[in-house]
């Protein structure tokens, strides 16, 4: 594990682009400095549980095995590049995005990195559909769960149902935004699981286990679960394992923001793991809610950019945003406490000082 404060990532993390949490592992995207639809690699947030491993692709292998396949199969890096490739534009959001709001709402911190809104980014991912690899191993009729395992120091692993692993947009990514996958984002290969919490998109993958039985790991029984008062235990998990990400919206301003008075265009982004975002409403202070303009592209599994005009008058203000997706999921006014501080997607007042 990284020593407190010691940098354990590879890419530069300048403060004008990334928010530094002081642990050397985790760096948030500064949305106030985010051009375009895709998140540039140098600004894509980093969520690590340990130091970024530096892996030699010449000796790296990806093994598919387990009780749910007819035969184990091993792929080299070169073999993956020779297989049919596909590209998907997808967002990845850490389950802890917004965790700091639990402290502000409940008066005590939930465990973990105190993310505000910067643990959410979108990229174009290019690689091989996971089902292509599974099919070469021959899933049996009894195959049930699939669990990628990383080559980081913790051997991070987290299962998903076979149906999710076989989806068109679940891929083993080799490239990001048209470039070879960087070390901090999973080189030589990572899994990208559309719509699910970021922890499902295992980085530095070295093994994919396919099982005829239900699989569990620390990361879906003890962590990345909704646990605490009001949440039931599910099987061996201490709470409800997190899968699909609920609607979330962010404003492309510093927190707190300081802007000049006058006619302004306020911009932001909204995301839901379940479907496309179809409405974004904005409220300034206690004024009526107004519908924001949604900009193209608006891709399911990724985010949509939005904007709204606002006449900013001198003083202290609070801007609130609420997103709704195509399945009718709406950002709530409040969310209940959970011990791990996950999935805080309630509407919050973004402080803005106008001079």
Automatic annotation (TrEMBL):
Pfam families: Mo-co_dimer, Oxidored_molyb
GO BP term (any one): sulfur compound metabolic process
InterPro entries tied to this protein: Ig_E-set (IPR014756), MoCF_OxRdtse_dimer (IPR005066), Mopterin_OxRdtase_euk (IPR008335), OxRdtase_Mopterin-bd_dom (IPR000572), OxRdtase_Mopterin-bd_sf (IPR036374)
Boundaries of every Oxidoreductase molybdopterin-binding domain copy: 49-219
Moybdenum cofactor oxidoreductase dimerisation domain: residues covered: 262-346
An example molecular function term from Gene Ontology annotations: sulfite oxidase activity
Keyword list, A-Z: Metal-binding, Molybdenum, Oxidoreductase
Cofactors: Mo-molybdopterin
Superkingdom to which the source organism belongs: Bacteria
Protein's name according to its UniProt entry: Molybdopterin-binding oxidoreductase
């Amino acid at each position: 594990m990284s020593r407190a404060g010691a940098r354990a990532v590879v890419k530069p993390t300048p403060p004008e682009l990334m928010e530094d949490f002081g642990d050397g592992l985790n760096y948030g995207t500064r949305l106030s400095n985010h051009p375009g639809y895709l998140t540039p690699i140098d600004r894509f947030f980093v969520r690590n549980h340990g130091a970024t491993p530096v892996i030699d692709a010449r000796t790296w292998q990806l093994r598919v095995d387990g009780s749910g396949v007819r035969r184990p199969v091993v792929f080299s890096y070169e073999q993956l590049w020779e297989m049919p490739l596909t590209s998907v534009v997808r967002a990845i959001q850490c389950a802890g995005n917004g965790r700091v709001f639990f402290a502000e709402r409940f008066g005590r911190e939930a465990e973990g990195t105190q993310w505000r809104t910067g643990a959410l980014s979108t990229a174009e991912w290019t690689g091989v559909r996971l089902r292509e690899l599974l099919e070469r191993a021959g899933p049996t009729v009894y195959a049930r769960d699939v669990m990628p395992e990383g080559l980081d120091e913790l051997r991070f692993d987290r299962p998903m149902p076979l149906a999710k692993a076989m989806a068109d947009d679940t891929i083993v990514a080799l490239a990001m935004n048209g470039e070879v996958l960087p070390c901090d984002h999973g080189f030589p290969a990572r899994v990208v699981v559309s719509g699910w919490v970021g922890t499902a998109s295992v980085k530095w993958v070295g093994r994919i286990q396919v099982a005829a039985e239900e699989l569990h790991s620390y990361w879906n029984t003890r962590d990345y679960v909704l646990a605490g008062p009001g949440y039931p235990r599910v099987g061996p998990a201490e709470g409800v394992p997190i899968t699909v990400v609920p609607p979330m919206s962010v404003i492309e301003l510093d927190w707190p923001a300081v802007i000049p008075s006058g006619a302004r265009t306020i911009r932001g982004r909204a995301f839901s793991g379940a479907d496309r975002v179809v409405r974004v409403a904005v409220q300034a202070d206690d004024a009526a809610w107004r519908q924001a303009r949604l900009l193209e592209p608006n891709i399911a599994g990724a985010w949509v950019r939005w904007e709204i005009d606002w006449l900013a008058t001198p003083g202290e203000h609070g801007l609130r945003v609420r997103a709704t997706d195509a399945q009718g999921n709406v950002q709530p006014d409040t969310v209940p406490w959970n011990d791990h501080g996950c999935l805080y997607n309630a509407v919050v007042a973004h402080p803005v000082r106008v001079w």
